[in-house]
UniProtKB/TrEMBL annotation, chains A, B:
Residues 89-374 form the Amidohydrolase-related domain. It comes from the Bacteria. Coiled coil: none annotated. It comes from Thermomonospora echinospora. Keywords: Hydrolase, Lyase. SUPFAM superfamilies: Metallo-dependent hydrolases. GO terms for molecular function: carboxy-lyase activity; hydrolase activity. One of its GO terms (cellular component) is cytoplasm. InterPro entries: ACMSD, Amidohydro-rel, Metal_Hydrolase. This is Predicted metal-dependent hydrolase, TIM-barrel fold.
Amino acid sequence: MNAEELIMISVDDHVVEPPGMFEAHIPERYRDQAPRVRTTKDGSDVWTFNGKTIPNIGLNAVAGRPKEEYGIEPTAFDEIRPGTYDIHERIKDMSAGGILASMNFPSFPGFSGRVFAATEDKDLALAVVRAYNDWHIDEWAGTYPGRIIPMALPVLWDAELCAEEVRRVAAKGCHSITFTENPATLGYPSFHNEYWDPLWRAVCDEDVVVSIHLGSSGQLSVTAPDAPIDVMITLQPMNVCQAAADLLWSRVIKKFPNIKFALSEGGTGWIPYFLDRLDRTYDMHHLWTGQDFGGKLPSEVFREHFLTCFISDPVGVQLRNLIGIDNIAWECDYPHSDSSWPNAPEELAEVAADVPDDDLNKITYQNAMRWYSFDPFVGGRTKDNGTVAALRAEVAGHDVSIRSYDKGRFQKQVGIEMGKLAEQATA
Amino acid sequence: MNAEELIMISVDDHVVEPPGMFEAHIPERYRDQAPRVRTTKDGSDVWTFNGKTIPNIGLNAVAGRPKEEYGIEPTAFDEIRPGTYDIHERIKDMSAGGILASMNFPSFPGFSGRVFAATEDKDLALAVVRAYNDWHIDEWAGTYPGRIIPMALPVLWDAELCAEEVRRVAAKGCHSITFTENPATLGYPSFHNEYWDPLWRAVCDEDVVVSIHLGSSGQLSVTAPDAPIDVMITLQPMNVCQAAADLLWSRVIKKFPNIKFALSEGGTGWIPYFLDRLDRTYDMHHLWTGQDFGGKLPSEVFREHFLTCFISDPVGVQLRNLIGIDNIAWECDYPHSDSSWPNAPEELAEVAADVPDDDLNKITYQNAMRWYSFDPFVGGRTKDNGTVAALRAEVAGHDVSIRSYDKGRFQKQVGIEMGKLAEQATA
């Protein structure tokens, strides 16, 4: 299939939360306490909440910049593409990139909402999480039906409340919750603790996928304080295999046969090796470790429960049948630096030149639709006008040129962020 | 090629150090201070050195046991196969397993000799490291020329002394040094520090491979204190990719163009994904991170410097040309629980059924010979009488039956070790 004919749903992109997002959604009594954006003396925009400052509005939102300026963080709204925070511009950017629909992970709250969870006033925290989810589902996703796969933040500090929130958002049509790679490293009970059972019960009941994004454990893959940053960039996606192993061998999989996890931005090329490793571990060790999957192999169990996701992964595409052709979904990672927006369709078509159409359709949109109970074909949208070519034609003239947003703050910020990484590594 | 015709060199096995190993090699003035074996009240054998007890004589030396008894650690010499600590029995076990030659990592000193490095009296520590290496090279490897690839411990606490030791052992024909995955996590300067340059200069001058074994960073892949041990068993080999990334992006590779590293027990199936990830990281980020390989891609650079090693890895064998057919060596891992001894030749022949003979010969012995400057064809040994069939015929009748060594201490020890893992994870 050539690039123009592809139908593409991305299961991992990112929203940069716009100022004012809470206004229409936070209860009146918390209006003054909701997170808000401030501009600092040096011109950076920051979120403030609960007496704390969260400087990182965009989490590496560098789409449309020249590669020389990728670095760590743009720090102000006027340094990033409006498509990162404005839904109307986002839809144009998606169409110009050939992308029919997209699921958007959060930015400033952290992938599992731990910025909100850190609040001592848990009533306030819950109000903020709910307001965030209402904004995301009703406003961000709701403005353009069929274009955004809705996703909700969890109530990270309380499994019962989290289950309630899952049921609440599912009733609004949201079938994806963003969660952490490892609750234990964030200070909560681990995946092996019964504590989370109410949440698992709710996601199974409501057909909600637990979407686990790389980097959501609160731990960076930093080998040494003086390691080049390229080391961390290389290793970070493979970190998610820890979550996969942790969950695969856990009681969760055994007790909740319908539970579904997505390994977002985890890549796919390492999965066949990982599945072999699981099966060999089982073969060599289950007689003394006591693991028991009722006659199934771990690799079979993996395919019943895990969606794997890739941006660009020639090896994974080649080995798709060793992974499981129903277990792979493409992602764009807009607006982060690993994204190939707006040329992702061309990149994928090249990588998948030898892939039969039926396989490729599963990878580019059908698996995403099934796993996330999501239908992009609404309001007159059909497979014919949902292709890369059709979407691009709808926004002909939309500016996707590469340009510099650098206003001098940028290189300084790179230095600050690299210093922070070094501190984290030694802490 | 069928199993009987294979010529097999294993680049990763383990010696369990025998009591009395230091006697012929430690200088007279340190005789009373050399490590020695004691038997505890409950019948366990332990090494003692420098006022400390090292309980783990065998590091999981379970070869020949039923899988029900694999667990963590046998704790006494009479609970493990004599082939683990007696060179004459080892050679018989190797021949019965069809293995022509083998490289043996240490057990009680730790993979990088950190038990010795922890001694305050550095003269004593140096004497012990040298005695260990003399025993390993002259006695363990020297008794059966062509059967053991000699390997030396490093002087972990002093790069200059380490360089001297590398030159000393190289003069004795030893072209492999065992090192750590990450000196930073052991409290030494990282791979990115010029501190180690004397060592790197010595290994390049002397054509010595730096063999990095999984688990040598002092860090276990433990996700949570209450995670099943299967999680750690699954993840531990992939941990070595951190060392690979750390070194690949480091100045070491750029400053020492002849340096060679082996990723021992690291597996191979994940390497093609890893190489893609390296190249993509370079493409997307080098303009701001400043990485520069002089026009080469990181994947090309990787193949110039890294040997990858696998026990059983169908995906790696299938993807051998994406890894680099000159960069793969087979390993047996005798006597640990991931080993298929004595049936490894049959297992490999099945996995490699479709692999051309020229490729398979590189994987089973030719790459090991070239990387480690090692020649097994000495003293009348030829390719004809170095095959699996020929070696097995030489030791016809040698007992390789699976039997229980359990004397009641074993299950208790499993409990203790799992408790220790949990402690480490929470520490």
